[in-house]
């Protein structure tokens, strides 16, 4: 079986979740900000579980839910990234020792881990500073554009095969 999911399945999900993010972004402009309650944390966790749906991103789902629940843009992004820490740390605890055992030269493995950690940190830092002063609309436009591109490629492919 293929690792990649069929584009006809992914494309509508990209567009649908673009619409969800657009609605969440509109609400975020009016958000007063509030403390994350246990109920809110559970709902954000359920949104995170939606990332198993093709075309869904974990951070996008959790940020959108947090915005729907009245969080400010920066708080929603920070909470989303904090939710990723336990699973990332768990994966590292499981995978890194096995990776180091299987590598003859640890230098490239350690350099790759350092590069991944540094680029991840910088990306999160950039996004947090970005959402302090700007909204999530570019991410919405990206999802719509990508969904249209995927459908366009499918139509071209179908025309050439048919």
Describe the 3D structure:
The structure is a single chain. The protein has 162 residues and is mostly helical. The chain is built from six helices and no strands. The mean pLDDT is 84.
Keywords summarizing the entry:
162 residues, single chain, mainly alpha, 79% helix, 0% strand
What is the topological layout?
Layout: H1 7-28, H2 38-49, H3 58-68, H4 73-102, H5 106-133, H6 137-161
Class based on secondary structure composition and strand pairing: mainly alpha
The number of distinct β-strands equals 0
Amino-to-carboxy terminus distance: 24 Å
Helix content range of the residues, please?
over 70%
Largest sheet: none
Radius of gyration: 19 Å
Strand composition percent: under 5%
Coarse morphology:
globular
The overall average pLDDT, rounded, is 84
* Uncertain stretches: none
What pattern of helices and strands is seen along the backbone?
Answer: HHHHHH
| Secondary structure tally, helices | 6
């Amino acid at each position: 079986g293929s690792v990649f999911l069929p584009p006809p399945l992914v494309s509508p999900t990209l567009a649908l979740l673009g619409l969800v993010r657009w609605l969440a972004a509109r609400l975020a402009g009016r958000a007063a900000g509030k403390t994350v309650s246990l109920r809110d944390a559970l709902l954000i966790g359920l949104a995170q579980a939606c990332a198993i749906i093709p075309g869904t991103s974990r951070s996008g789902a959790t940020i959108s839910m947090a915005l729907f629940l009245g969080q400010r843009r920066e708080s929603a992004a920070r909470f989303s990234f904090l939710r990723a820490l336990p699973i990332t740390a768990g994966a590292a605890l499981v995978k890194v020792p096995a990776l180091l055992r299987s590598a003859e030269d640890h230098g490239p493995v350690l350099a790759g881990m350092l590069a991944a950690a540094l680029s991840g940190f910088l990306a999160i830092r950039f996004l947090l500073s970005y959402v302090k002063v700007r909204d999530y609309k570019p991410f919405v436009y990206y999802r719509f554009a990508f969904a249209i591109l995927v459908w366009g490629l499918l139509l071209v492919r179908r025309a050439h095969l048919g």
